[in-house]
Structures are given as C-alpha cells and as structure tokens.
Amino acid sequence: MHFLDYIKQPSLIPADCGIYPRSIHAIRDGILFMANEGDTDCLVSTVDLGLEGENHGTYFKAPLIHANANVLRALFPFTAPRRVLQEEKTMGVGDRLGIASSGHIKVFEESLAIPVLAQQSMRELTLTDRTYEDVLDCVTFAVFKENFTRGFGADGDHLKNAIDVENALKLGFSMITLDCSDYIRNDLSSLSDQEITALYQNDSEAEKRYLETSFDLGENTVLTFTPEDYRRTVLIYSKAIHFATEIYHSLFSSGKYNADFEVSIDETLTPTTPLQHFYVANELIRLGVNFATIAPRFCGEFQKGIDYIGDKQQFEKEIAVHSCIARHFGYQLSIHSGSDKFSVFPLIAHYTKGKYHVKTAGTNWLEAMGVVAKTDPKLYREIHAFALAHFEEAKKYYHVTTDLSKIPSLNSLSDEELPALFTQDDARQLIHITYGLILSAKNSDGTPLFRQRLYTLWRKESTAYEQALYRHIGKHLRLLGAM
What we know:
Shape: globular
Structural class: alpha/beta
CATH architecture of the largest domain: Alpha-Beta Barrel
Largest sheet: 8 strands, parallel, barrel
Number of strands: 15
Helix content: 40-55%
Oligomer: single chain
Number of helices: 18
Number of domains: 3
C-alpha cells in the first residue's frame, strides 16, 4: 500500500509504513507530512506548496534542504525559532550532530522548561564542518516531524564579532550569546593592590558611582566596593563592557532583529566575583544595553561533560548573591557548560528561584557515543584509540584536567564493559573534546574515517539515542526542578 493510502485513515497507520504520524498536517485542502525512505527522510505533500523536489502527479516529494526548511518556517510558524528568554526556565541543548532534536523534544514535552534546540558556537561549527543554516534547518525539520508547538529558541552561541552576530541574526536566530572573553583581562589576578593602582587611570565621576555608596539589593544583600575592588574590576572588565555596548547598539537597539541578547563573561581563567558581576550589569544598563541574561564565570570548575569541581559551600554562597543580582536588575542568570553539573543543580534551582538559563551541549554527543559503545563495540574501540592518539591536539580548544592514565585500557575491557567508560570522568572528557577530530578524520583516499559509519549507525539506532537523551537530559531537568 502507498503511504498516501494510509493517511486517509491516520488511526490505522502501521509503524513500519514510513510515515511519521505526528508530522501529518492538513494544509490548503491537502496533506503535508514527513516520511522515512530508509537512508533519508523527505517531505511529502498532496498539494503544491512551493517545495523544491519531485512532482509525482498525485503528490510532491521534497528533500530536507535549506530552501524547504524556509518554506516550512513560513507555512508553520512553530517550526521557526522565537525569543524564549522571557520564560522562567530555559535550557540550551546544543546538538552538534543535527540528530538529537527528536530526543530533546520528547523530554521537553514533559518539562516546565522551554528549550533552545539550536545552539552552536563558531568553534563547534568549524569542528563539525556545519553551518548555521544546517543547524537551524535540522531543528526545523525535527520540530515539524514531532509536531512540537510549544516554541523553541535558536542561539548563535559564543560569537565574538559583529559579522558573525549579524549573520546569525539574518538567518533568524532568536538569541545571540556575545562572548566577551577576548576583551577580559586574565593577567591581573596575581598582581598586588599596589600594582593594580599603578595601572589604573583615575575617573572621578565613575568612582563616585561606586565608591561613595553601598548597593542594597534587598534579600539581606548589600554590596560595597573598596577602592581596590573597584580598580581591579574596572581594569578587568571595562573593555568587555565597551565591546558589548558597541555590538548591542549597532545590531540590537534599533529593533531590526527580534532576538535576545546574552552577555557572556564566563570563558575566562578568573572567576567573576559577585561585585564584578554587579559592576558589569550596572554599567551595561547605564549605557542603555537591554540584555536578557549574563553568564558569569562561577567559582570552581565547570569543565565539559562532568560534574562540578570545587568547594560547594563557596559555590552556594556565591550563587546566592549572583542570583540576587540578576533579580535586582530583572534578568536571567545564565549557567554555561551546564552539562552534567548534577551536584549543584539543586543549588542553582533554589537560589535562582527557578529562573535560569542553563546551557548543555557536548553531553548529547557523549550520549550518542554511548550508543556506539553499546551497539558496535568494534567501531567504538577504533574511535577510542583514535581519541587517545589525538587528545593533545583536541586540548587546544578546551580547558580540562583529564588524566588519561586513569582510563582503563581497552584491552582489559570486554565489549559489555565498554559503556561503563561513560561513567568515568576522564574517559568522558577524552571522547567529549575529540568530537571534531573524530568527525573530520579521513582515510588516505580522503573518504571519512568514522563520520559515515557513525551517522549510519545513529540512524539505525535512532530510538536508542532518543531514549538515552530522554533519560540524561531528563535527569538535568529533574534536578533543576523543571520536571
């Protein structure tokens, strides 16, 4: 039976007929849906909707390409991103592979949080050989396939210059995370107060704003700058504030683009103290910058793919003040590298009073590789050995404290024991940060070493991957009080 015969009676659609039942939509006296053709998916329409593809007389078949994603976004607004940072609970779930959104959607359908399903940095695009068009299109097709109508965001993540910011905005990204790290000084933490004073240039008007008063934020929280605190803070953050202000007024303040603006000061070596956080927020507001979130660099270590490292009592003390600052000014606190920070999620949920933006990314890649370890041990062993050989190269892109000597030798592990590697921090980080090298590796003839085999396996095991994401991201959301 042809799939068009099945849609006449949707309740009788068998699981193996190739149709994704949730994607069936009535439109213009016809039907549009998504179908599985084995190696690929496609759109099928009984009326001409302007999709690029093949005309089969009684129906049109269209590939999942950028032009057709644009058509979907115009016909079905729920498949286009929207601004979401006005919501209380939001989570970014960067999908480096373009195949995770169906699994993400299934967990967010049961969550109080709104997802930012498209979230990629330029570094991730480079390492995965993708484009922002592709990132957004993959999410659009998944949202249509799953009929996810709650809304989602799209984040041009950790962008560092006006060209990249504007390119993402032109594509319709509904959120920009401006990475100010290039303008934050990391060379001052070892300097004495006397050395800081020698570097500082007096500004009496600015000093009056901070040194002649205390800032009562309510909630029994009062912030007071000493001259030493103030001078150090100005030296560290003044150029970053100027950069963020320039980007905002050149691209956001006119209202040309309907997008949220996040200021990231977290990609630095030195933690952001509550006083410094307050200064950055206060100055941005004074300069007319309307931002939705700020991402401080918290105390301790928020390393990729593993739990929090550091003094949890200090973290609790500081997250309480950071959260108070955000409430005082009326924005969300943003927590970056939030993947797997299970031990501090309850503290984040409590002190932010449930108003936060948490970013995850690489943990979705780790779940995908966990599926490989379970279903194709031979392939996983090849990849693991490759990752070990290229780990030092990958470390150029990420700050981790991985100890390779703590990772069990593959020769000592049975195939059944391989998935347990993903419960060990050093093994997780090994696979986590080598993703770009793994995906881009080539054979001597220029063909992909792993990429094609991986995507073929993930398509075959798509249900297992969706279930893994549901469990893992669900654990994040439960501990954050969003499920």
